[in-house]
Design brief:
15 helices; globular; alpha/beta; 3-stranded antiparallel sheet; Aspartate Aminotransferase, domain 2
Length: about 375
C-alpha cells in the first residue's frame, strides 16, 4: 500500500476501491491481467481484423497448447455454457439457430444430477433449455441416468470440481459412457480446473464433448472464457456466437456476449503464459502471502487460524479464520462488516451456511497481505 495513487481512477469517479481478500470473484473484477497479457492486448489495439478469422486462429492456437481438438474464446465461462447448450439444441440448422430461445421441435432438455445443482446452472437455461434433474439428493447411480435419458434430451451436464470430488455423485466417466451409448453429448463446467496442467482440458480428453474454463483464473481479462471441445461441437458453438451473428448474418443467441479483439489476443497470451510459467514459484508466493496474513493473528484469544494447503484448481492456499465470539468478542460476520467499513475497505465474506472466513490471496496486490492481517488484528486490539 505504498502507492499514494492507489485506486485514484476509481476515486475520481466517486467510487471506493477495495482490497480484495475474497479471491477471484466476478463482483470485484475477477482478475489481475498478467503483464504479458496486457502487452499482447496493447499490440492487438494497433490494427483491426475480421473477428470470425481471429476466433478461428485464436481457437486453433489455444487448442494446440491445451491438447484438445478445438477451442473458442467466449465472454466468460458462463457464456461458453450458454453457447454450448444452444449448439446442442440447434446444431448447425440456421432456422433452428434463429428460432432460439423458442425450442419448439427441438431436443431441449439438459440432464443434471440433483446433487450437482449449483448457482451457475442458470447459464444453461438462457437459450431456452429446460434442466431436468436425475438421481436423488443422497446419491446418483448409473440407472438414474439411463432412466432419465429420453427423446427430448439434448445433453447431459456435469459439474467438475477436482478439489472436492463428490463420492456420491455419478462419475464423469460413467456419465460419458452412458450418454454416448445413447447418442447424447456431455458438457462439463470446469471453470476453475486449470492446475495441475494435466487437468486443463482433461474432461474433453476423457471423452466429454465440451468443457468451459474461466480465463480470468489464468491472468486474462475476467470477461473472457474458453470453450474446449470436439471440432464438431466447437464449430456449432461458433455458429451461435456474436461473430457469426454479424459475419454470417444469422441471428444466434450469442450476439450480446461480445468479446473484443484485444481480449481474444489476451486470452491466447494468458494460456501461453499459464502453460509455460513456473507454477512452483506461483504457489510459493501464495503460501508466503497466506502466512503473512496469519502472522499478526497468532496468539489472539478466540481466533483460530488455519493455513489452507489446497493447490488444485485456481485459488491455491489461503487462510481459514474461526472466531469464538464469547472469547474474542466478535463473530465472523461482524469482522467482515468492520473490515468493509474501514479505510480502505477490505472485502471478505462469510458464506451462507458457514460460520468462518476464508481469506484468499488471489486478488491481493503487493503488500496487501500484510495490510489484511494487521487490520484484522487491530479489530482485537493488536
Amino acid at each position: 500500500m505504498a502507492d499514494a495513487h492507489w485506486g485514484d481512477v476509481y476515486k475520481e469517479l466517486g467510487a471506493r476501491p477495495v482490497i480484495n481478500a475474497i479471491g477471484s470473484v466476478t463482483m470485484l473484477g475477477g482478475s489481475a491481467p498478467l503483464p504479458e497479457v496486457k502487452a499482447a492486448m496493447e499490440r492487438a489495439d494497433g490494427a483491426y481484423i475480421p473477428l470470425m478469422e481471429l476466433e478461428e486462429k485464436a481457437g486453433e492456437a489455444i487448442a494446440r497448447m491445451v491438447n484438445v481438438p478445438a477451442a473458442y474464446v467466449t465472454s466468460g465461462a458462463g457464456s461458453a455454457l450458454t453457447l454450448a447448450t444452444a449448439a446442442f439444441m440447434a446444431g448447425d440448422d440456421d432456422a433452428k439457430i434463429q428460432q432460439l430461445p423458442n425450442t419448439a421441435g427441438m431436443k431441449n432438455e439438459v440432464l443434471i444430477q440433483k446433487r450437482q445443482r449449483y448457482w451457475y446452472d442458470r447459464c444453461l437455461e438462457l437459450g431456452g433449455a429446460r434442466l431436468v434433474e436425475f438421481g436423488s439428493a443422497e446419491r446418483t447411480t448409473r440407472d438414474d441416468l439411463e432412466r432419465a435419458i429420453g427423446p427430448k434430451t439434448a445433453a447431459v451436464h456435469y459439474y467438475a470440481v477436482e478439489q472436492s470430488p463428490d463420492p456420491h455423485a455419478l462419475s464423469l466417466q460413467d456419465t460419458i459412457e452412458i450418454a454416448h451409448a445413447r447418442g447424447v453429448p456431455v458438457m462439463v463446467d470446469s471453470a476453475g480446473q486449470v492446475y495441475p496442467l494435466d487437468i486443463f482440458g482433461k474432461y474433453v480428453r476423457m471423452g466429454a464433448d465440451f468443457q468451459c474454463i474461466a480465463a480470468k483464473y489464468l491472468g486474462a481479462p475476467q470477461s473472457t472464457g474458453l470453450a474446449l471441445g470436439t471440432k464438431d461441437t466447437i464449430r456449432k458453438l461458433g455458429l451461435q456466437s456474436f461473430v457469426s451473428y454479424e459475419g454470417r448474418r444469422i441471428r444466434g443467441i450469442g450476439r450480446p456476449q461480445k468479446v473484443d479483439r484485444q481480449e481474444m489476443v489476451g486470452a491466447v497470451a494468458a494460456v501461453k503464459r499459464w502453460m509455460t510459467m513456473d507454477h512452483e514459484e506461483r504457489l510459493a508466493k501464495a503460501e508466503r502471502q497466506s502466512r503473512t496474513v496469519m502472522a499478526p493473528l497468532r496468539g489472539i484469544r478466540g481466533i483460530k487460524t488455519q493455513l489452507l494447503d489446497n493447490i488444485l484448481g485456481h485459488q491455491p492456499y489461503g487462510v481459514r479464520l474461526d472466531f469464538d465470539s464469547k472469547v474474542c468478542g466478535l463473530t465472523g460476520k461482524e469482522v467482515v462488516d468492520r473490515l468493509k467499513a474501514g479505510d480502505p475497505p477490505i472485502w471478505t465474506r462469510v458464506r451462507e451456511g458457514e460460520d468462518y472466513i476464508l481469506i484468499h490471496v488471489f486478488g491481493l496486490y503487493e503488500g496487501e497481505d500484510k495490510v489484511v492481517g494487521e487490520r484484522i488484528a487491530a479489530l482485537f486490539g493488536r
